[in-house]
Design goal:
InterPro entries: Class_I_gatase-like, DUF5689, IFT52. The chain is mainly beta. Helix content is 10%, strand content 27%.
């Protein structure tokens, strides 16, 4: 039985909500600092507190989209739910004290353009007089706009290896640009707040953190067990009377695979420095976190300023650990005014001072730091200049160019019925993939201008005839957007002609002459989307990233087995991962999918689904016998037989674990067992021991250059049928008397007559 996804209903239900289609990043047309800044009014009872988010220091550079109506919208809306008024700061000139003074908290999401001395002075005065700042950083080498400065350096006040010259390595145009005027090196954060961002780069941390007790954190850590990090930095506690660590990484943590130096400076733990911290400075406060991942969500707004390509962000605020709750707790503390000026004046314990590295390769003394690799880490696209918005790609923040030249159509019945509801279809083509058009409206009127139409774009009918409420459409990966909208006409309308108009922000886009009359409602013709021809999965795996492919196969893993709602699908030629977030799929479904081929952390996948159908059910393919997990079988259901368990290791605190599986010929394969399949470390180690031989079924996968086998069910690991059987009992026939007394010589060492344990 063929079962198709009901895209029409889905699109209608979310017309006015920023959305993600199966993980696909939503974009909007370009905006500049001259456009009105977004703001979010308190929802429910207002608490009288105001929050300002900076968007004047490259917060949308590269893959970043740290704006309250983009990939920080979950955070912004979460604050509004708590009663805060939230607004974005937009300007091209320097931040002043007057910009900040009316707000209780100033949030600085991961900046990419350094602060001028005047801006540092303004922020310092703001804090000293009772304001609070939330510094959201990232790992070292997170230079998103290729200007050699990353967020930790910007917050600290100096560049690594460039204390004497903040413009080191820059061209004359860069050094002389307005954005670099008034930028001077200093230990600004350390001198004033008693803390610095380290230049480390730590890998994924999903559990096992040390979190101080709520009674020792002013209640900030109430209900917090873990705040996840994905490539983050830590903070050095320099002056415990001013700064206090709240969350620390576990011991023996991994470095980010792309770290330019050792990445981890003290092996993790307390000596690595705090991942999250707070500070008290005179009447004001500050908070710090070493990664933007816990704050972001999966709804970016803009295209990349350097290339115009779609951004991809992730659901950190609501989808991981206690991220969102921690951030809201921090903001509650920051927004409260308190009289003490030092943590010594409170009942909380003071943090340990973080030991700093002073080696030949890494010296954390600000004036003695060295550049590990030449910067920037990669060359910017030709023509792009981070300090000149006129060079930014269309559709990015800062560019005044629209990213596309869309074509519009409205599909209607041949005659619009005057006595019954009907549906119209808005079609927009030639958009950029993922681009969102906002401010659209539909209206229908008679000659002379009398409005006769009602259009349900919000989930309820308007009370009067006229233009609809504004709605949005978002392009799929082919640049096409569709919305089907319920409509009705004034039943007193006489048979004849009328006009149907589509407009945007009050400007006419399309006007069509239509017939109206007392007729039965006709269904619209099926919406035809031109999609690529069906190809085998192996062929789809080999096309260029960014190309749209159509594949079909059988779902071989339960959606969500490895996080999110993604799954693997396989045909006779190969397998591939499907990144999506629908609840409609299950193991054994035969599916046909049109989507964009991409590669993420080494794994080939399809994402940004354009069309998906479940065309039936089938038996899951038998696992392919292999001796090695590698590129030849990536994405397929495979089986390792008679492998020996080695190096069992728990990963985090949720029960996920890994081990090595060694074949008879010595080949070692890594096995990762995610607790979400129903098998955890404790259960496994109660049934299996290192040295045992097992058969393992799972998906061949890769993550950051490490090939791994991922079981998909609890029964995917079984003891091998060929495993050595216990030695049966033998009767002592009198020939082995004194066998236990041989002390390692002759018959006395032969214990084969005993019963096996």
């Amino acid at each position: 039985m063929k079962r198709a996804m009901d895209w029409k209903f889905f699109i209608l239900a979310v017309l006015l909500i920023p959305i993600t289609f199966f993980g696909y990043a939503v974009q909007s047309q370009a905006e500049t600092a001259a456009d009105p800044a977004p703001e979010i009014q308190p929802k429910g009872e207002a608490n009288g507190k105001k929050v300002l988010f900076d968007n004047s220091h490259g917060q949308t550079a590269g893959a970043a989209d740290w704006v309250i109506d983009g990939a920080f919208s979950d955070f912004g809306n979460g604050l509004a739910e708590e009663g805060y008024y939230v607004k974005e700061l937009r300007k091209t000139s320097a931040i002043t004290y007057e910009d900040l003074s009316a707000y209780d908290v100033f949030v600085i999401p991961e900046p990419n353009i350094p602060f001028k001395t005047s801006e540092q002075d303004a922020m310092l005065r703001y804090t000293q007089e009772g304001g609070s700042i939330f510094f959201i950083g990232d790992h070292y080498n997170a230079d998103r706009n290729f200007n050699r400065w990353d967020s930790g350096e910007i917050f600290n006040g100096y560049r690594r290896g460039a204390f004497e010259d903040p413009t080191k390595g820059m061209s004359a145009d860069e050094a002389n640009s307005d954005r670099m005027q008034g930028v001077e090196s200093s230990d600004w954060l350390g001198d004033n707040f008693g803390i610095r961002f380290r230049f480390n780069a730590v890998g994924d941390i999903e559990s096992g953190q040390t979190v101080v007790e709520p009674s020792d954190s002013f209640g900030i850590t109430e209900g917090i067990e873990v705040v996840e990090s994905h490539a983050g930095a830590t903070l050095t506690i320099l002056d415990p009377t001013k700064s206090k660590g709240l969350i620390y990484f576990p011991e023996n943590i991994p470095a980010w695979p792309n770290a330019v130096d050792q990445g981890v400076y003290a092996g993790g733990g307390i000596d690595e420095g705090a991942f999250a911290a707070i500070s008290k400075l005179e009447k004001g406060k500050a908070a710090f976190i070493g990664d933007s991942s816990p704050v972001e969500d999966a709804t970016p707004k803009y295209l990349r300023e350097d290339s115009g390509r779609t951004k991809r962000t992730y659901d950190g605020f609501t989808g991981e650990g206690n991220n969102g709750q921690y951030l809201l707790n921090v903001m509650e503390w920051l927004s409260e005014k308190e009289d003490y000026s030092s943590f010594e004046e409170t009942s909380i314990s003071l943090s340990e001072v973080t030991p700093l590295l002073e080696t030949a390769t890494i010296n954390e003394n600000p004036e003695l730091t060295t550049e590990t690799e030449a910067e920037p880490w990669s060359n910017p696209p030709a023509g792009y200049r981070w300090y000149d918005p006129s060079t930014f790609a269309a559709g990015s923040y800062g560019s005044d160019e629209v990213a596309s030249n869309p074509k519009y159509d409205v599909v209607t019945p041949a005659t619009l019925p005057t006595q019954q509801e009907f549906t119209v279809r808005v079609v927009v083509e030639d958009l950029q993939p993922g681009e969102t058009l906002t401010g659209l409206q539909l209206g229908s009127y008679l000659p002379g201008g009398q409005q006769i139409g009602k259009f349900n774009t919000t989930g309820s009918w308007p009370s009067s005839y006229g233009y609809s409420s504004s709605f949005s459409v978002t392009a799929d990966a082919t640049g096409r957007a569709v919305a089907e909208i319920p409509a009705q006409l004034n039943p007193s309308t006489a048979d004849g002609t009328a006009s149907l108009r589509l407009r945007k922000d009050g400007s006419n886009l399309l006007t069509k002459s239509v017939q109206v009359g007392n007729v039965e409602t006709e269904p619209l013709p099926e919406d035809e989307v031109e999609l690529p021809q069906l190809v085998a999965i192996q062929e789809a795996r080999n096309v260029q990233d960014g190309e749209v492919v159509t594949i079909e196969g059988i779902v071989t893993s339960a959606p969500g087995s490895f996080g999110g709602k993604g799954f693997y699908v396989q045909d006779d030629t190969a397998g591939i991962y499907v990144f999506q977030d629908s609840d409609s799929f299950k193991t054994g479904d035969h599916v046909q999918i049109s989507a964009v081929k991409t590669t993420f952390n080494g794994e080939v996948e399809v994402t940004d689904i354009i069309k998906s159908e479940i065309t039936g059910q089938a038996d899951v393919p038998a696992p392919k016998p292999v001796s090695s997990i590698d590129d030849t079988n990536q994405g397929q259901l495979v089986k390792l037989s008679e492998v020996t368990i080695q190096n069992i290791e728990a990963v985090g605190t949720y029960g996920t674990f890994e081990f090595d599986a060694q074949t008879a010929d010595g080949n070692v394969n890594r096995v990762r067992v995610d607790n979400r399949i129903g098998l955890n470390y404790d259960t496994f180690t109660s049934q299996f021991q290192e040295g045992e031989k097992v058969d393992i079924t799972g998906i061949s996968s890769i993550f950051n250059d490490t090939y791994q086998l991922k079981p998909v069910a609890t029964d995917n690991i079984v003891k091998s049928a060929q495993a050595e059987e216990p030695v049966p009992c033998k009767t002592d026939n009198g020939k082995h008397k004194g066998a236990d007394k041989g002390k390692g010589k002759g018959k006395g060492h032969d214990k084969s007559w005993k019963c096996a344990a």
